[in-house]
Amino acid sequence: MKKKVAVLGGGGFIGGHLAKRLKEQGNHVLVCDLKFHEYLDPNQIADEYQILDLTDPLQVEKAIPQGCDEVYQLAADMGGAEYLFSGLNDANVMSSSALINLHVVRECVRKGVKKVFFSSSACVYPLFNQEDPTHPNCEESTVYPAFPDSEYGWEKLFSERLYLSFHRNYGLNVRIARFHNIFGPFGTWKGGKEKVPAAMLRKVIEAPDGGEIEVWGDGTQTRSFLYVGDCVDAVLELMASEFTGPVNIGSEEMLSINQLAAMAIGLSGKNLRIRNLQGEAFFKKYGFPCPLGVMGRNSDNRLFEQKIGKTNFSPLIKGLTETFHWIEKQVVIESSLIK
């Protein structure tokens, strides 16, 4: 049955992929964002596309239609490690995202929305559970006692509790997922707001054969990365389930950042060295402390598989290969425009 759905933040990376899938499934899709999607045509991802500032409650009223079947709330002040973990943008990250969620959750109740998805983050997990790069603990129940490593994580944790309180007090039907490092094509790949895989691939593509790429920190910090198509699959499976969450959506294929760099170099076929930069040398070059985040983070998918179903996510190298070729194409296009 055709549903009326609103994707808030549909002009962003994950939101754009999600809106596109929902439209392909035959739903009537309304996208709201501060901007048009940089790489996807509005007609590909939406039946209606509104440019709105969701920190403004009057504009949130326009974003959510009466009797909307589903709202997917992905709008946030977002970026990569430099943007989120340098400390330079904390006030905007916390205030803008909190305002959006405060207005959205109230409007969803007021408009009688049938089901709401909120995109949280693995950044909610406590710092002390992620100090060992080989054995991080991101099981959902370990989020308390709370001690996220960034203000971004604190805001996400607050907003989880906000949606759950409206679920308890007003009967709002919510689903909450904690995303773990989602990557893929049609997203930011330069400028400081890009995620680690995109930054790594861009550095490798732009580096001359025989040269080097810079990796922030000593490279032993570990992460897992989930391809965006798999993320969208999991979100839709969560929405179709009876489980409220919060639940992890991420890959369990953990590797070090230096290993990720080596994979990117391997895809390029170039002979490149890895230069790790941290401490005083990093501060001298960039003017702020090296934004490492936690030392180890990996998705724990046991709760997802117990409550929703088996995860069959793609191997990292598959998604990385697709993203490599897409970013390579963007670099070529940009170079031709400069010339």
UniProtKB/TrEMBL annotation:
- Highest taxon in the source lineage: Bacteria
PANTHER family documented for this protein: BIFUNCTIONAL POLYMYXIN RESISTANCE PROTEIN ARNA, UDP-D-APIOSE_UDP-D-XYLOSE SYNTHASE 2
In what residue span(s) does the NAD-dependent epimerase/dehydratase domain sit? 5-250
The record ties this protein, via InterPro entries, to:
Epimerase_deHydtase (IPR001509), Lipid_A_modif_metabolic_enz (IPR050177), NAD(P)-bd_dom_sf (IPR036291)
Protein name (Swiss-Prot/TrEMBL):
NAD-dependent epimerase/dehydratase family protein
Q: Which Pfam family, giving just one, matches this sequence?
A: Epimerase
